């Protein structure tokens, strides 16, 4: 990637005030690529005396050249109003310090908002772990972008606090102290494997319950067996015990023998 490509990021997102945090992040990317970020962290060195060693002059001139270029990047990516306010500043660090005084409070507000979103984020039961993790990772990135420094173990702890109760077994078996080097992407992949295992177990249980409900219970089977035995123990009467209708019998005799 060329320097002109990177610097175009600043040109497309000029500093207006409200976007200071994003502008500062983009500026640091450009200055780091150009190896100019040193001028934001150091004050202008004193001009060396005439009898100073040559390497001192070289170092001084290198710093001045870096400062001039960084200052140009900053001034060129500001609104006209901000340019007018900073045109008399000599060093890039002076410009940045003044901008911090003017707009630095935005970072604190955004940091607090992002941290609140992260703390209050909770996964809903049955929801996708991937979608949840991407949301949490976004909150973490936003918090860190706005100045927070969260160590790896704290990040994992905060993420586990957001998971639903379905993932309690995963949390119980995960060794935080031994796995601090795991990336958030790797953690998401392991959680997805656990999610598939949960869903597979749920399907098996549902199929088992359905199969069990379709079979007659042991009590019903016993009742049917008893009823079957009782019905088979009754002897057929072959019509001997059948109650006869006298009128029908008389009609039958009259018809059969003509009486």
UniProtKB/TrEMBL annotation:
Ranges for region Disordered: 210-259
A Pfam family: Retrotran_gag_2
Biased composition annotated in UniProt, kind: Polar residues: 210-219
Protein name: Retrovirus-related Pol polyprotein from transposon TNT 1-94
Species in which this protein is naturally found: Morus notabilis
